[in-house]
Amino acid sequence: MPKPATQRPTLPSVGRLGLIEPPARADLDRLGWNTDAYVELLWSLSRAPDADVALRTMVRLADALGDGWDELNRALVKDRGLRGRLFGVLGSSLALGDHLVANPRSWHLLAGRVVLPTAAELRETFASLAEKSSSTSDFRILYRDRLLVLAGLDLAPTVENEPVLPFPTVGAHLADLADAALGAALVVATRSVCKDHKPGAPGPRLAVIAMGKCGARELNYVSDVDVIFVGEKADSVTTRVAGEMMRFAGEAFFEVDAALRPEGKSGELVRTLASHVAYYERWAKTWEFQALLKARPAAGDAELGAQYVAALMPMVWTACEREDFVSEVQSMRRRVEQLVPAGVRARELKLGTGGLRDVEFAVQLLQLVHGRTDDALHVASTVDALAALGEGGYVGRDDAANLTASYEFLRLLEHRLQLQRLKRTHLLPEPDDEEGLRWLARAAHMRPDGQHDALGVLREELKRQSLRVSRLHAKLFYQPLLESVEGQTVEFSASMSPEAAERQLAALGYEGPQSALTHLAALTGSSGRRGRVQQVLLPTLLDWLSDTPDPDAGLLSYRRLSDHLADQRWFLASLRDEGAVAKRLMHVLGTSAFVPELLMRAPEVIQQYADGPKGPKLLEVEPDGLARALIAAASRQEEPARAIAAARTLRRRELARVASADLLGMLEVTDVCAALTSVWVAVLQAALDVVIRANTPEGGPPARIAVIGMGRLGGGELGYGSDADVLFVCEPLGGAEESVAVKWSVTIAEQVRKVLGSPSADPPLDVDANLRPEGRSGPLVRTLASYEAYYTRFAQTWEVQALLRAHRVAGDDDLGLRFLLMVDRVRYPPGGVSTDAVFEIRRLKARIDAERLPRGADPNTHTKLGRGGLADVEWTVQLLQLRYAHQIPALHSTSTLDTLNAIGAAELIAEGDVDLLRQAWLTATRARNALVLVRGKPTDQLPGPGRQLNAVAVAAGWRNGDGGEFLDNYLRVTRRAKGVVLRVFGS
């Protein structure tokens, strides 16, 4: 040991190094790491999962090395890889630290260029030792040395930026190591039992078949190794060799478990191949064939092992034809889960809900069902099987990838927990054991993500991964469609008990499983072809519905649609023959209350859910073309009522089309707003044409009339719940007196509002003229001259601001254009608006902020009037228009987004601020539209956490449908936008 330095150098504090225990500084002194030459080494130590444990073990290792410490010390300074591997191991594994202290020269195994030996090299190393020694101590050291090397490579990324070992590599190497150890144990056992056995001479022919994780080559660091013995003879000598091999391996390496053999622990330890075949042909239970999925010759007689696999594997792939196969596998899974004590179920990585066993059982069941006809599924590894299932289409590619990622994450945590003391465990630390969980997070390569420290990241990941596994397990493992392999009719409610069906539906996310069963019974209870088709479709439809925010509402809507379209053969045929139609329909039904009501009255839109030659048929309709068709359809009707009905029909279809495409992520929010505006404009034009035609006297109309869109209608930015804000302007025709022209025009305007606002099952068509001069107390219709006189003499600041969004939408084009040219002089005055007007706008905005928010509304999440919401952004844009539009013609736009682009191009405010306002407007508009789609009626308030918020997130196109993440993003975006609003309004 070097003597401590007498002068105290300037080094990082022990706290900064992650060392929290009082002896830490003294330990550094004892190691001689108290000079500037060791600063980099100390920072590496600080990144160990438990720096205190690593430091204490280093002190013990230095004591054990004695004079050899200087060599290690020098190597640590020079060899970054050694630092990463050594400190990673010592900060993660107390047991391997003890091994190093007991065998201090083994640190050399971690130095220099370290690579994993091949399976052949491992077998050769262990076989060589087996020829020379029968000492369990020698073999234990060799085995721990090999674990040390693997763990060093596996843990190095926690300390240094070393490559991460893929999970399959770790599991496969551990299995190779187990094979080599089993082979060596068999050699030693044969020599011990057969006293006259000579080196190199053949012993009893005995094959060791690896089962479970070892057989699948995805072994844990610490695990029982499951085996089955196959002997040429099942005599006493062969049985004694097998028993001695198990004993020796248990003392030197790991426990060897032969309980998976025929008849379990009560059965013969060794059987001949013929005996094995006879047992599996006559007596084996379903779970035994499931276990054989992993069978692989690991040691002993290779030829006999290959014969065993060749004889039994064909039975595995026909096991699904056995009576009650699926129900037996499912029952076994439930029994396994019930064995876990309730108190530790949430901490159990392996057997708990959302744990490893969920993944393994689901995958194995699918393999057994489909593997009888697909050789690509004849693989042992869970990861390989998931890849094969995804490639073969039995599991969605995304589901396969997600389940693989979750499985590997849970296995990584399992490995870290086992490495700590080299004990077999699957239990996470107690929830209040923050130090234990923090250690686990660091050992599993987790780092702070900006919102959470490593511990927070671990907790979030555990929750997310467990929920994902639970969902996917329910989706894959309990598929009623699988019961068709039993030769039964695929009736969801008849193929299992009501209790089991309710459990399944609850696992799939149904909050009212009893109601769901009632719907299913009604859907499948129809006689004849319709009922049979529903029986085939429902398992898959339920599967897709389970992925939606509200599967209960989705199933109810599906039942209503099915009943409504009972006589329409195309409906079920489309769902059966067009997978895209069925999947998209389930997504829409399980997300929206708005669209299902439209589809009940416009079911033909469902056929547009299919894909055409150029993509989804939902996108084949051009909004402008639809608008022309709507106006033409109305014009062909003689009676006003029929004309409006025709317009409503086409509007209903267009709403259903646009909303469906929106929910399915096919349209940008700007496209949605443009399409909704286009159909509103068409409806207004159709209604105006119909009413004028019905009220035109013999001598012709006494006036021409134009409809000016205001607000969102004028800006081309309507949402699903938007009214149509309008102004009506008229002009006498043919020498008619102004009073006659105005009176007639008022009649036209009133009837347009009446016919469009009449009660209907469709979303309302409210025409709002309250932005006219003098508001509700002013005349409904004015002449162009009257408007000009009013705006020139009496226009208030808010009215000038409202005119910024005025745009002609229906009626006489020439009159509408002249109206806009007239108001241009009002809204874009040559000298700009006065300072007083700007002050008045700011005062009005402050008043709205203080008074207009509805009682009980949350100002942070009100999409229209809340912080950084639509009103904030639009008022900011309009203030800039009023101040600068007289100088910058590009600001002469009624569109909020187009004007924002012009503001940025003119550099009126920073481009970053423009982007913040743009993102806030788009985010709030998406959210506001999503609220209508989800709830079925207009609202501006985002809900709190829960199912409805998740549905809004999905409807708004949030990437993973996580309501919490969606809300966090909304709050972040609008908060930043509010900062811009405050700066602009205050400048």
Verbal overview:
The chain is mainly alpha-helical and 987 residues long. It folds into five domains: 24-165; 196-316, Beta Polymerase, domain 2 (2-Layer Sandwich); 322-477, Nucleotidyltransferases  domain 2 (Four Helix Bundle (Hemerythrin (Met), subunit A)), CATH 1.20.120.330; 618-827, Beta Polymerase, domain 2 (2-Layer Sandwich), CATH 3.30.460.10; 833-986, Four Helix Bundle (Hemerythrin (Met), subunit A). The protein is built from 41 helices and twelve strands. Strands 1, 2, 3, 4 and 5 form a five-stranded mixed sheet that branches. Strands 8, 9, 10, 11 and 12 form a five-stranded mixed sheet that branches. Strand 6 and strand 7 form a beta hairpin. The radius of gyration is 38 Å and the shape is elongated. Mean pLDDT is 88; it is low at 1-9 and 478-496.
SSE order and pairing:
Blueprint: H1 24-31, H2 39-46, H3 51-65, H4 69-78, H5 80-90, H6 94-102, H7 119-132, H8 136-155, H9 167-193, E1 206-210, H10 212-215, E2 225-231, H11 236-252, E3 256-257, E4 270-271, H12 273-282, H13 286-292, E5 296-300, H14 302-316, H15 325-338, H16 356-370, H17 382-392, H18 397-421, H19 434-443, H20 454-477, H21 498-507, H22 513-524, H23 529-545, H24 551-564, H25 569-577, H26 579-589, H27 594-601, E6 611-612, E7 615-616, H28 623-635, H29 640-663, H30 669-695, E8 703-709, H31 711-715, E9 724-732, H32 738-757, E10 767-768, E11 781-783, H33 784-793, H34 797-803, E12 807-811, H35 813-827, H36 835-851, H37 870-884, H38 896-905, H39 911-935, H40 947-955, H41 963-986
Parallel strand pairs: 2-3, 2-4, 9-10, 9-11
Antiparallel strand pairs: 1-2, 1-5, 6-7, 8-9, 8-12
Helix pairs in contact: 1-3, 3-5, 3-6, 5-8, 7-9, 8-9, 8-11, 9-11, 12-14, 16-17, 16-20, 17-18, 18-20, 19-20, 21-22, 22-24, 23-25, 23-26, 24-26, 25-26, 27-29, 28-29, 28-30, 29-30, 30-32, 33-35, 37-38, 37-41, 38-39, 39-40, 39-41, 40-41
GO biological process, one term: regulation of glutamine family amino acid metabolic process
Domain PII-uridylyltransferase/Glutamine-synthetase adenylyltransferase: 331-477, 844-978
InterPro entries: GlnE, GlnE_rpt_dom, NT_sf, PII_UdlTrfase/GS_AdlTrfase
